[in-house]
Amino acid sequence: AKSAGQGQFAHYTTAIATETRDRTRLLQDLRMAFSHGLLFPHYQPQFDLKSGKVVGFEALLRWRTEEGQFIPPDRFIPVAEQSGLIVAMGAQVLNNALAALKTIHQAGFPGLRMAVNVSVMQMRQPNFVAMVQSALEASGVAPQELELEVTESVAALGMEVMVERLQTLRSTGIAIAIDDFGTGFSSLSYLDQLPADRVKIDRAFVNALDSGTGGRIADMIVPLGHKIGLKVLAEGVETEAQANILLELGCDEVQGYLYGRPMPLDALLDWLAKQPS
Ligand code: C2E
Ligand code: CA
Ligand code: CA
Ligand code: CA
């Protein structure tokens, strides 16, 4: 029994060593890719559900390898967060997304907004508010055309500081969206306390609408969001059935493969030109 136990232990430490090595390697590759400009966002359109019109976009970061493959953000965002690299990366995403929006406006599509994901690591930087404001100024985009997506996990950093930072940004006209609502260890009070304009229903709840597994969470989030004065956007909409239920529920906006996938800017401009006006 003893030798079996030792064997297991050896196996366990090897697994940890391998994982650590993989992480170290991944971080090295990520830093390299970042410095070589291989990280840039794609843009997924968002729509008004009733009219079907495009209202804006969400910037979603992509890592394009030298071989032309795309590594999804779920693979590298956690490493970027742990290492602190997310701070520089997030600032670059913001700059890229604002420049892209300017290009979109100038291409004949004014008034559309851009949503950018913000990690808690970024938000805890003392210069976060100043960073966002100077990025906006440099881009020439109006504050009303920028939305920042934050998750409820910001509350873990100290609700007061976060509320104050979001409030400052919001007072300049920037919109705030609460992302992935209901998926974390959240409290309803966060939804009430965080200064916001929009709440995003997570894909898992949207999927449940027509998968026979309930779908009652989305039923609740729509009226709840409206009650506290938020617009409600459902993400990950993939079927007409989901869209129809969301329309009945009074959901305001949608985003998902049914309407449009995340695209690089050039493809997005082509796509926009083909949209009915
Ligand atoms: P998220 O913010 O919840 O973004 C929505 C995710 O759902 C995106 O995955 C998007 O491509 C995907 N999606 C959209 N519509 C559909 C659909 O109809 N079906 C399915 N199956 N998926 C859909 P993506 O691009 O892989 O991003 C994953 C996560 O990585 C994001 O989740 C976000 O948390 C994080 N992320 C992406 N870009 C950034 C960034 O610039 N900064 C930070 N901090 N996080 C980012
Ligand atoms: Ca998001
Ligand atoms: Ca989300
Ligand atoms: Ca998510």
TrEMBL record:
It comes from the Bacteria. Residues 23-276 form the EAL domain. This is Diguanylate cyclase (GGDEF)-like protein. The chain holds residues 476 to 752 of 752 of the full protein.
